[in-house]
Amino acid sequence: MNSTIVEAGCRTAAENKNFNINVLILGKTGVGKSSLVNYLYGRDIAVAKTGRPVTARGFHRHEPFMYKSLLVTVYDSWGLEADKVSEWYKDLEEECKKANSGTIADWFHTVIYCFDAKKSRLDSFEKEHILDELMKNGVRLIFAMTKWGLCSEKEKNAAQETLKKYYPDLSAVPIESVSQKLRNQTTTVQLGRDDLFCEMCINLRENLIFNLLNITRQKVNSAVNKSKRDVEEYYDEQAGFFTAYGSDLQNKIISYAADSYERNVSAAYQTLSDTYEQINLMSRSVISSYTGLNLDPEGLFIRKLVSEEAYKITGWDNSFSEYFYTLLSFTNIPLLIIRRLWIKRSYGEKISEKLDEANGSIQGSLDKYFERILYTEKQFRESFLMKYRTKRNRT
Q1: Residue whose C-alpha is closest to residue 89's, from 140, 134, 53
Q2: Contact yes or no for 224/264 (Cβ under 8 A)
Q3: 180 to each of 65, 99, 154, how far by Cα in Å?
Q4: Contact 173, 144 (CB under 8 A)
Q5: Continuous segment of H or E residues that includes residue 71
Q6: Binning pLDDT at 50, 70 and 90, where does residue 60 land?
Q7: For residue 252, how far is the Cα from the chain centroid?
Q8: Rounded to whole angstroms, how far apart are CA atoms 61 and 47?
Q9: Strand partners, 76
Q10: Residues 62, 66, 70: CA angle, nearest 5 degrees
Q11: Under a CB-based contact definition with an 8 Å cutoff, are residues 94 and 77 in contact?
Q12: Cβ atoms within 10 A of the Cβ of 243, count?
């Protein structure tokens, strides 16, 4: 990759706030994770300075360092081994959950998986239990093909073919982290640092979007469940022994439910909208600093989508209205206690069923909405990569 491409636009970005990019490095034991960390830092003592052995269980944070306009924080893990997959993956889930529970600055912005190019193969346990699981959860990986300088041409081709076979849409960057003299008197040359950082920038936005959508799903799920509980509790308070199950009660429940759903679900959507704007700002500055290209203002489109979906959600009470008028418009109900208890419980169960229908409808709208976001992001990525490659070929 031409260095002029990588450095294009740095001055403009440097005038803005530096963004801290959190990089998570994963891989099996012995694939060269520690060497890669040192190479990224540009000095061999980087790992030793953490004061913690790389082989210790858990995920370890290294001190941030500057690379061009980026403030980079690297996290690496204990090596993955076949007989410790469940323990390793449990640690990974806990670390990701902890990272993604905070603001966007705390998230893992890109994930690098170290693949030993010299061995040129993926073990079944790492593919099935690690890589495929990460992909299912929306993590877009970058493969670092380590020990590249030690590989024969046959091994290099085999490594590339292996990754292309199983993960054709993911980037794979040749990496030689260490310059060393070999037995045949040749010397390996460090390779791939700038390429890897550029891939991080291209990969950055997609990982952020996937993280955001997963977090929003959780928030909306919690919001609709909370609204349902609130409405059920409100109904229980209002429906007493001498309650008239007519239009007054119906209107109270409809109004309360509409307010509860609008308040709780809109809050989740507002978080989505606000965080999407942060992603736009971050990726616009970061990608521009590496390529000199500007992002299209997708945030305008996303804000429109959020507004449309929020409006649809606040309009769900129309379907409730028809239901409640049919259900609750009785005026001559006997005052027998047993009958009143049965009516209260029966109406409560039907209200609960209707709330479940509303929750399913809201979550269905959410899935359709996310499909539109992902389609837009796919178009953006293709457009950006086309512009990027055109600019690279001209340079």
Answers
A1: 134
A2: yes
A3: 25, 36, 21
A4: yes
A5: strand 70-77
A6: confident
A7: 39
A8: 10
A9: 25, 60
A10: 105
A11: no
A12: 16
| Residue 286 CB neighbours (<10 A) | 25
Residue 159's nearest CA partner among 113, 212, 105 is 113
Burial group, residue 391, by CB count within 10 angstroms (0-12, 13-18, 19+): middle
Assigned token pair, 122: 């993926």
> What is the full DSSP assignment across 54-68?
TTSSSEEEPPPEEET
Whether residue 104 contacts residue 20, with contact meaning beta carbons closer than 8 Å, is answered with: no
- Cβ proximity of 89 and 129 under 8 Å: yes
Chain segment 201-210, per-residue pLDDT in tens: 777 788 888 8
| Range with the poorest average pLDDT among 37-46, 178-187, 311-320 | 311-320
* pTM score of the predicted model: 0.66
Label residues 159-184 b or e (16+ Cβ within 10 Å = b). bbebbeeebeebbbbbbbbbeeeeee
Distance CA(279)–CA(292), nearest Å, equals 18
Please list the alpha-helical segments (H only) found in the chain: 3-7, 10-14, 33-41, 85-100, 124-126, 132-136, 153-166, 193-238, 247-291, 298-314, 317-328, 337-394
Measured between alpha carbons, how far is 280 from 278 in angstroms, rounded to an integer?
Answer: 5
